[in-house]
UniProtKB/TrEMBL annotation:
<protein>
    <recommendedName>
        <fullName>LYR motif-containing protein 2</fullName>
    </recommendedName>
</protein>
<dbReference type="InterPro" id="IPR045293">
    <property type="entry name" value="Complex1_LYR_LYRM2"/>
</dbReference>
<dbReference type="Pfam" id="PF05347">
    <property type="entry name" value="Complex1_LYR"/>
</dbReference>
<dbReference type="GO" id="GO:0005739">
    <property type="term" value="C:mitochondrion"/>
</dbReference>
<comment type="function">
    <text>Involved in efficient integration of the N-module into mitochondrial respiratory chain complex I.</text>
</comment>
<dbReference type="InterPro" id="IPR008011">
    <property type="entry name" value="Complex1_LYR_dom"/>
</dbReference>
<feature type="domain" description="Complex 1 LYR protein">
    <location>
        <begin position="19"/>
        <end position="76"/>
    </location>
</feature>
<keyword id="KW-0809">Transit peptide</keyword>
<comment type="similarity">
    <text>Belongs to the complex I LYR family.</text>
</comment>
<keyword id="KW-0496">Mitochondrion</keyword>
Length: 87
């Protein structure tokens, strides 16, 4: 029988950082739902999934914070673009 517990335990800082990453991931996908063109939406979903998957191995706190900053900035840009396309 295999254990469902993670092989490594996260400290509090790592846990909180992980929560921020997961929140960004969910926020991105919530925003992507607002895109009316299905092929564009699908393409962006695939891109977001692969981007998160490709950066999953990072453990350096500074690198993760930098990627979070870039991700949040990109999300704000996307939200702005969607707001402009609606008006």
């Amino acid at each position: 029988m295999t254990s469902k517990l993670p092989k490594t335990t996260l400290n509090l800082k790592q846990f909180l950082l992980r929560q921020e990453v997961l929140k960004l991931y969910r926020d991105i996908f919530r925003t992507l739902r607002k895109i009316s063109d299905e092929s564009t939406r699908s393409e962006l979903k695939d891109w977001a999934r692969s981007d998160f998957r490709n950066n999953k191995h990072h453990r350096d706190e500074t690198a993760i914070k930098s990627m979070l900053y870039y991700g949040r900035k990109s999300l704000k840009d996307l939200e702005r673009s969607l707001a402009l396309s609606k008006s």
